[in-house]
């Protein structure tokens, strides 16, 4: 039964291709006859303008297609608010305050964050569960911020990662906690 269906599909597809080819041939011969009737100079101008019109249509269609590809990654307002709240939580008071505020964001992270951001957040969350400060926290936040920027459409091509990390280190409560902790200040 499947073989019969494949043969029938092949016959229908071949018939459609033959019909398209025959229609194209008839259309071209019709246009050639029409161009023979008119003045040759006018025909040349008509052909050139037709080619320009077709090329313009292709350029416009290409631009629309490329624009549509970019719109697949629409930024939801909830996502921007979530990422903003994440950054505010990062700078919240001490380790416990930070952990509580980030815990409140988790259910929203699961829904709105991209896979890359969520993966980096899970790594950060593992480090935050430790009781003592961890020197890798600032680096993990840098990674999550880069993932957030990419999710929001930034390309991060010209960004200096070390300078970005210094932004998180400057007046950062975690860095201050680490400096107070004698175990990590050595």
UniProtKB/TrEMBL annotation:
Transmembrane feature ranges: 7-30, 42-64
Keywords, in A-Z order: Membrane, Transmembrane, Transmembrane helix
Report if keyword Transmembrane is assigned: yes
Name the UniProt record assigns to this protein: Uncharacterized protein
The record lists the organism as Fodinibius salsisoli
